[in-house]
TrEMBL record:
Molecular functions per Gene Ontology: calcium ion binding; nicotinamidase activity
Protein name in the entry: nicotinamidase
Source taxonomy: Eukaryota, Metazoa, Ecdysozoa, Arthropoda, Crustacea
EC number of the protein: 3.5.1.19
A Pfam entry, by short name: EF-hand_5
Residue ranges of domain EF-hand in the record: 35-70
Keywords: Calcium, Hydrolase, Metal-binding, Pyridine nucleotide biosynthesis
Amino acid sequence: MAAPPWSWDGFLSQQEFSALCRALFRNERGKPYPVDNSMLTTIFSIFDTNKDNVIDKEEFRYCWQKWIKQVVRPVTALVIVDVQNDFIDGSLSIRNCPAGQNGEEVIPPINRLLEENRFDVVVYSLDWHPDTHVSFIDTVHLRPFHEDCKVAPEEAKVMDTVTFDVNKDGNAMEQKLWPRHCVQNTWGAKLHQDLRIAEDAIFVYKGTDPDIDSYSAFWDNNKKSQTTLNEELKKRNITDVFICGIAYDVCVAATTKDAIAEGYRTMLVDNGCRGVCDSDMEATKEAITSINGLIVNSSQVKGLATGRDRPPVLAYKLALELAKNKNKK
């Protein structure tokens, strides 16, 4: 093994720590990633906890245990979002949405991900709506509209956003209207028959409250109640989450943003998703990358999941989370 690019005297200067990072941030072929100097400065300041401009042995021990080991040995989850019949061939088939995409096209890349990778846990989320769910166009008459809503109840149509007078917490609530879909225990709510089901997988059911929609597999849209997903990931010490499924710019987008907010190093698998609207899918990509998530192809997943491919943005995200959690204490 080659000598490290510094001389170890019990302390790492910022320059020596930057050299360590540049050696760490390499793709699976061993090629170094370009790294922004401001990112390196921020990471150094996070681990230089006593602010004496060097990282001492105790600080490096923490850096090794909490940061470097997770960067090179991630604990992984694949979260497969809503690959259900109604979104592919049923009442809310995304073929009929503005982008005209075929939801069935997510199945081959997702199945290959499951065949070619050993994730520590695989999660399937499902929209699981009661019969009178607030998102259904045919239930708009069940709830009063807010006086400021620009759409009259009798004129409301699919993909309109309306404002109901109150939700269960007494607040006005915006809601996008969809065709009736994924009603509990119906064919439309089932996972597509060609989707591979991993052994010991976890199933997360969302949108079960008739009065609150839930795009994300983590939270309802009002951030009032969580699903079981975060608890399941935390108890398995998951560090890295790969997300794919339907619809790219709706439930996949919301799940990915929440995974990042919950502290996971998060990657959206681009070719394992199909969506509703082209411009919204592009906006999703920009939003995810702006908060230190990655947009990847399924061909990149193996290197990332095994820790052989180590992009700096994921390490940066982890360092920021460590700093945030320390500040909470």
